[in-house]
Each structure stands twice: as C-alpha cells, then as structure tokens.
Design brief:
The chain is mainly alpha-helical. It is built from 29 helices and three strands. α3 (134-146) packs parallel to α5 (169-181) and α11 packs antiparallel against α12 (287-296).
C-alpha cells in the first residue's frame, strides 16, 4: 500500500522520466543525463514511497530546483549554470555524472553477487573522490554478512563513513544483524556505540534477541536501560524477546512482572507475547494453568491463534492426555480456528509413538478435509512406526502412497528405512536404496552412510563398508567416531585384528579420539584370536589415554582369559571385580555361565 510522506516536508528529487509521476518536470538530456528529469517536489505534491524511497531523498526546507545525484549530495546553486549552448560549465556536472556512473556499476556488481569485486571497486571510486550511494553499499554489507565475512562488511561501512556519505540506520542495522547471526555480539555492541545516527527499535531488538538467545539476560536488561536512556521506546517485539528469555532463565513468575511493566507503559501484549508465556507455563509442567490462560485470552483483548493451540496440544500429547487433545481439536474447529499441518503432525507423531498406527492413519486421511496437505513430517512417524514393528511391507506401501500424493520423501524418511532394513538383515537392499538416493534428489548425509556402513560391518562385509567410507569422503562428508567404531568392530569380528589395530591408530592420527566402544572392539578381536595378553596391554593403553574402561571392557577380558584355558583364574578375577563393584552381580553370573 502506498503511504504518503508528511505534507509539511519538501523533497528534491532526480529520477528517470519513465518512472516520474510528477507534473512539474523537464528533461535534462542536455546535461548528459539521457532519459532523466528534474522534479520540484513541494508541499502540495504527494510523494509516494513506492516511487520515491525515503532513504534516497534528502529533505530540504524550501521548494528548490536541484539535481539529485546518486551520491546523496545536492549541488551548490552558484556553481551550477549552463553555457549559451546549453551545456554545463560547472565541474559539478562532470563529477555528478561520474558519481552516477560509478554507483550504477557498483549496483551491478552487488546485484550479480560479485562482492569482492564490489569492495575493490568501492575503494577505487572513493580514492578518486567519488561519493558512494548508501543503498548499494548497504547491499554490499548485507552480502558479506550473509557469507560470514563481517570484517569486510565493516570495511565497507568504514569506507562509506570516511567518504563523506552519511550511512543511515538501516546500514548500521544490517551490519549489527550480521554480527549477531554469527554470535559476535561484542562486535555488534561496538557498532552500536559508534553509530553516527540514532539507533531505532530494530537496532535494539536485534541485539536483545542475540543476547537473550545466548543466555545473557542480565546484559540484555542493561541494553534495555541504555535504550530507554536514549528515548528509544521498546515495542511489543522488544518485550516479547525479553519475556521469552525470562521464562527460560527465571521462570514465568518473573516474566509476568515484565507483562505488567509492558502494560503500564502503554504497550499492549499481542498473541505472540501470550504464546511465549503459555509455552513457558507448559514447560514448567503446569498444563491446567496453561489451558486456563488460553481460555482467558479473549478477556485480555487477544484471540488465541493456531500456534497457541498447538503449544497446548503438544504439551497434552507429551503428558499422555489424549482425550484432552481430541477435545482441544474439537474446540478449535468449533471456534473457527482452523488446524494447521503442524496441528495434525503433533497428533500423528503422538499416536505413532504409542503404537496406535491405525488411528494415526485416520488423522492423516482427514487432513485434506481441513485444507491441510500432509508433508514428510506427517508420513515419517508412520514409516518409523511400521519399521519398529518390523512391518517393512507396510512401510514401503506408505512410502509409495506418500510419493503418489505428491509428497516427496526427505533424508529422514530414507534414514528410517535404511535403519530398519539393516536391523532386519537386508543390508544389500539398504545399499541399493542408498545408491538410488542421488537420482531421487535426496543427498545422503553422515548418518545415512553410518547406518549402512554399520549394517555391512555387522554382516561381515567390511570390504564393501570401506568402499562406502571412501565414497562418502569423496562427497565431502567427514567420518566421525561412529563411522570408525563400526569399521573397527567389523574388522575385529572378521578376525582381521592387525588391520583393525592399524585402522584404530589411523583414527588417532587424524585427530579423532577413540571411545570405550572402539577400544572394546579391538580387545574383543584380540581375545577371540587368543591374544589376551595383547588385549590386557591394550587396556593399559586405553587407561593411559584417559579413556575410562566400562563393565564390558572387563567382561571381554575375563572371557578371553577363560577362552585361553584359564577358567579358574578368570573366575577368581571376576569375583574380585564384582566385590569391588566394577562388574554387576547379574553380569558376573552371565559371564560365569559362559565359562
């Protein structure tokens, strides 16, 4: 919607003729500006923001005729006059034209994402005396912030400030937001301190959000005090940010004091504010109180929305109150509050966790009746439920239904199926599915490869597992301790102990610290190879590296000692470890039976 700027303000503009909507204009192609015009914009002219962005035009107390250059500077009237042949005699015309051309080129570089080239060009144009336009410079700052290059973004601001151009609050806000998104809150606060224009509420809200998300509520309150001192008054977003953080750090009771303060200053809480409070009440386990708050919201002058109901619904489901959840859904429909996809997904997820897959399917099938299209988060719990019950045929059936309804599986869907296939011993099918993921437009992630590598290792096919390791590394995925532990265990099970130990030391060489499971896998392989002495040495090595042995570590060694024909010594050691509380009595009995 177009908004009219205040009538008492007078603006001077320079625009393209094609875009100019003002009557009081004349062409200035004689000055070398093709397709351009002068505008006299006085108090009787409605200047629409859609045609004249307020950032681009400087206020002028009197209606004057002037040329607005893209550098934000107006010419000195005494220096601007035309010769007899209609051409400008002033140096200003030449400089303005060069500024105009330079800023246009800068805009093109930024628009094309050529940030580094844009910075070099900006430095060059300023060194030649051109004054940059703040709009492309702000876009350049935003571009550098998006790719995490905040130092270069700051360099752009420094160039802008030193050039004689005046950055506006939006320019500073963009840089502050970039720092905050990277967690560089101290740098954001430094920018706040150096601002050459007054910060606005957006400036403070950005910083407050970052501080609160970092658990620095006290420091956020100090920034709020600074904001009030500078007579920049908080809005509903400011208070909602602080209320959410207070609920998290100090509890709902303390947050309610902020609600009272907010109201006393004439700032009315909105539905987002109340949703934050209700979420806090639910997290404190006071569901009945949250329900009461929900019902009272209309009396506070605020109608609950679907998110409000979803918060309560999720809490009901997590506490097992299914009947209340069904009633809440009915109340929503009765009051004309349409459920969202998230509403139905909460219910489906709860029912699947309880093993009520039939009822979950009924909810899924009703979604289109309420204008909701199921997404992958609607189907994934069902597929997981079928896999958990070892009903792979049903899982595959619903995968096909999912695709036929235009809902494409995501990596979570495929990881669920791959895990189930590997647990069911169908590792070759899992490998085949993994190979198809690329053609299905779904790139495998680390957990995808870990699942199949573990499955292959457990099935005695470490050779194929090692090929997958190489494949994932070629795709830029770095293996973790889970990847290597699976391979070490697989090699040990196959009796390739020396290869397993070599792999173990390679793991250490690349900076990944083995855990107890990795050490236990090697020791198990050594014991099975009747090399218990080496296994005991490996235990000593494990302790020297600061890795604490587990109960499984000791039972592996005891069984290894017995396996080599020293059953009595093994039993004596077992009893001693049991007496010291290192091995549980039940575990000792299981080991004794095996011996």
């Amino acid at each position: 919607m177009d908004s009219v700027l205040p009538i008492e303000q007078t603006y001077v503009g320079f625009s393209s003729v094609n875009n100019c909507v003002h009557k009081d204009t004349f062409r200035v192609s004689s000055l070398g500006f093709n397709n351009a015009c002068f505008c006299v914009l006085s108090s009787d002219c409605d200047v629409r923001k859609s045609n004249y962005p307020s950032r681009k035009y400087r206020r002028n107390p009197n209606p004057v005729l002037a040329m607005y250059g893209s550098n934000g500077k107006l010419p000195t009237p005494s220096n601007t006059h035309l010769s007899d042949n209609g051409h400008s005699n002033s140096m200003y015309s030449k400089n303005s034209y060069e500024d105009f051309q330079s800023n246009n080129h800068l805009r093109r570089l930024v628009r094309n994402g050529e940030l580094e080239e844009g910075l070099v060009f900006l430095e060059n144009m300023v060194s030649h005396g051109d004054i940059p336009d703040i709009i492309p410079c702000t876009s350049l700052i935003r571009g550098f912030c998006r790719v995490g290059k905040t130092k270069k973004a700051t360099r752009v601001l420094e160039i802008l400030e030193n050039s004689g151009a005046i950055p506006d609050v939006i320019t500073y806000n963009v840089l502050i937001s970039g720092y905050c998104k990277l967690g560089e809150i101290d740098n954001a606060l430094n920018v706040l301190d150096r601002m050459s224009v007054p910060p606005d509420v957006v400036t403070y809200n950005t910083i407050l959000r970052s501080l609160c998300d970092s658990g620095k509520l006290r420091q956020a309150m100090e920034v709020l005090d600074l904001q009030l001192q500078k007579e920049c008054y908080p809005d509903v977003i400011t208070y909602t940010i602080l209320i959410e953080a207070t609920c998290r750090e100090s509890g709902v009771g303390q947050a309610m004091k902020l609600i009272d303060e907010m109201r006393s200053k004439g700032c009315k809480p909105d539905v987002v504010t109340y949703n934050v409070l209700i979420n806090g009440i639910c997290k404190e386990g006071r569901l009945d109180e949250a329900i009461k708050f929900l019902n009272n919201m209309p009396s506070y002058g605020c109608q609950p929305n679907v998110i409000t109901h979803n918060i309560i619904l999720r809490s009901m489901c997590s506490t097992g109150r299914w009947m209340d959840a069904e009633k809440l859904l009915s109340d929503m429909l009765r009051k004309g509050c349409s459920p969202s996809v998230v509403t139905f997904n909460i219910l489906i997820n709860f029912l699947c966790r309880k093993g009520l897959l039939g009822r979950a399917i009924n909810i899924l099938d009703k979604m289109p009746e309420h204008g909701c299209t199921p997404n992958s988060l609607s189907y994934n719990p069902l597929l997981h439920g079928f896999c958990k019950e070892k009903k792979m045929d049903r899982a595959i059936e619903y995968l096909d239904i999912m695709v036929s309804r235009g809902c494409y599986p995501d990596i979570v869907t495929y990881n669920t199926l791959l895990t189930a296939l590997c647990k069911d011993g169908k590792v070759e099918v899992a490998v085949e599915l993994l190979n198809q993921l690329g053609s299905k437009g779904c790139a495998p992630v680390l957990i995808t490869y870990n699942t199949v590598i573990d499955g292959l290792s457990k099935m005695g096919n470490t050779e194929r597992a090692l090929e997958l390791l190489e494949e994932m590394m070629e795709k830029g995925l770095q293996p973790d301790i889970i990847t290597y532990s699976s391979l070490v265990a697989g090699l040990s099970r196959e009796g390739k102990v020396d290869e397993s130990i070599k792999f173990f030391h390679d793991l250490e060489g690349i900076g990944i610290r083995p855990n107890a499971i990795t050490y236990n896998s090697v020791m198990l392989g050594l014991c099975k190879a009747r090399q218990t002495v080496r296994a005991i040495d490996f235990l000593a090595y494990m302790v020297s590296k600061g890795c604490k042995p587990t109960e499984a570590t000791y039972t592996i060694l005891i069984e290894g000692i017995a396996y080599e024909g020293y059953a009595n010594e093994a039993l004596e050691l077992l009893n001693e470890l049991c007496r010291r509380g290192v091995v549980k009595r039940s575990s000792a009995q299981n080991v004794a039976v095996k011996m």
